Amino acid sequence: MDLFGKKRHQERISELEGMLQDLTREKEELKHTLEKREERLKKITSAYQETRRALKEAELRLRGTPERSSDETPEAPGVQKLAPRIMKRLLRRLDNIESPEEDILSEYRTPGGNLEGAPEAILPRSLKTLASERGISLLSLPDVFTLIIVPPLPFVSEGVTMGRRFDLSPIQEIVDTPVLLISAHAGDSMIMVSLGADQIESFEIVRTPVKEKHSKGGWSQRRFERLREEDIRRHGEHLRERVECAVERYAPLVKYVAVSGEPDLIRYVNQCFSLPVIRARLGKHDERNPEKTLEELYTYTLFRM
């Protein structure tokens, strides 16, 4: 006989103790989840700061870069050029960013494509029509930063992903793409084969005599110009012969042919290729420093918001 309800009180105490244990366990789980989120936030913040530093370094380097030739189109305000080594460092830092909300956007468009489908919260409408003959990419960590990147070589496929991390493989693949480059200039051209942004397989300087431009008027100038045109024709034909040899040797290796320089000379070699040809806007090559031309060839264009 339970006159004072002892058994009932004990059952209630056991029930409350069980509830307390459940709440304590739930509290610990929530605490652990919160700690993990805080840790991820710290990692994102750190990676973001590293990325900002990398972009700042690139901007400072850009300010110290001498002007390029008139062969290159002018750049819009807010646009930066990133050399391959700087781009690789930026990619490593971007690769360290992780979002538990799985809201990191990576979008890639092939040549001629634009970013029309990007959310307006990420990309203003005025920028959605941006397009490039090499394709364009959009990388965004919402409320933190958005980058538009134009590659030095074309993207070969399109895609949009939203996840915990950036999809950087299309950008990284370009750095390792072999290219045959022809830098065509009157009397002094260069043929280079690269295995990627870090390695020159071969380069050859092609020289023939070409008269300098003549500024005097009259019959003398017309005669001089005819002679110069003949010199350029001979140089173009000789360049074509050397390019055909390079194509025969390296066609199984390279993925693209890049041409830069004077249009009157480029037309001599345009029919030499079965590979995709891209127009590269590079400064005149320096045979003493072919690595500089290699760096220009694999330089990315970046727009930061």
From TrEMBL:
Ranges annotated as biased composition (Basic and acidic residues): 58-71
Top-level taxon of origin: Archaea
Actinobacteria/chloroflexi VLRF1 release factor domain: residues covered: 191-295
Region (Disordered): 58-81
Official protein name in the record: Actinobacteria/chloroflexi VLRF1 release factor domain-containing protein
Organism of derivation: Methanothrix thermoacetophila (strain DSM 6194 / JCM 14653 / NBRC 101360 / PT) (Methanosaeta thermophila)
